Amino acid sequence: MSQGAICRYDSACLHDAAADVSIESARFEGYGPGGAAVIVDCLTDDRTRTVAELRHVFKEFGGNLGAPGAVAYLFKPVGRMIYPRGTDMAGLTRLGFGAGAEDIVVSPGGSIEVLADPAEFTAVCAQMSSVGFAPARCDVTERAALLVPLAGAAASDMLGLLEALTELDGVQGVYSNAEIPDPLVAQR
Questions:
Q1: Would you state the pLDDT for residue 136?
Q2: Rounded to 5 degrees, what angle do the CA atoms 62, 65, 51 make?
Q3: pLDDT of 116
Q4: Domains 3-73+146-187 and 75-144 share a fold
Q5: How far apart are CA 17 and CA 139, in angstroms?
Q6: Topology at the third CATH level for domain 75-144
Q7: Engineered SS bond to 175: which of 29, 39, 85, 138, CB 3.0-4.6 Å?
Q8: List of residues 6+ apart from 179 with CB closer than 8 A
Q9: Domain ranges of the chain
Q10: Exposed (0-12), middle (13-18) or buried (19+): which is 62, by Cβ within 10 Å?
Q11: Residue 93 half-sphere exposure, CB side, CA atoms within 13 Å?
């Protein structure tokens, strides 16, 4: 079965007649160490099993699974195009906003993110690429409105939680509003 037919944000069920299995997309929300918000998008054929696995992982790293809507209000879906450090910022800014970008953000590491409405994302990316500004990476992601700075054990446990969640079968995306120091991230 092609996963490309599944819309990440819908709750529709797909049925694989050959295997007699229904696959559903599901979104789960919770809190990690230090109170940072976490969203996990999954594909599952057994929601009960998936909830049990997620609950176990959250608990193992000092977090907890929350109710639907517990943290979703803290995030906004955005189309994101990432450009490497050293990209012509003036040209990228002029062309990005001209193509319909909503914002341009420089990360502490120097990479540049051009953000667009998910509905306009493909057109903005195509227009940027057609004039010589092809992104190094592009995707639709969830962007946190408010970041929660973490340090020490809370930051380390949060990194462990995020890694463990991404390793679970069926997990399609993990999003968090945790702000973790770059040196700690680099150690992993």
A1: 95
A2: 120
A3: 96
A4: yes
A5: 31
A6: Alpha-Beta Plaits (3.30.70)
A7: 39
A8: 147, 148, 149, 150
A9: 3-73+146-187, 75-144
A10: middle
A11: 6
Residue for token pair 């945790």: 178
Predicted structure pTM score = 0.80
Distance CA 104, CA 107 (A): 10
The pLDDT profile of the chain, 188 residues, written as one tens digit per residue, is 222 222 233 334 444 555 567 899 999 999 999 999 999 999 999 999 999 999 999 999 999 999 999 999 999 999 999 999 999 999 999 999 999 999 999 987 889 999 999 999 999 999 999 999 999 999 999 999 999 999 999 999 999 999 999 999 999 999 999 999 888 888 87
The amino acid sitting at 148 is V
**Which residue reads 């946190």 in tokens?**
144
User: Which amino acid is present at 145?
Assistant: A
Phi-psi region of 9 (alpha: psi -120 to 50; beta: other; left: phi over 0): alpha
- Amino acid (1-letter code) at residue 146: L
| Chain-centroid distance, C-alpha 66 | 18
Eight-class DSSP state of 3: G
Both tokens of 127, joined, read 């227009």
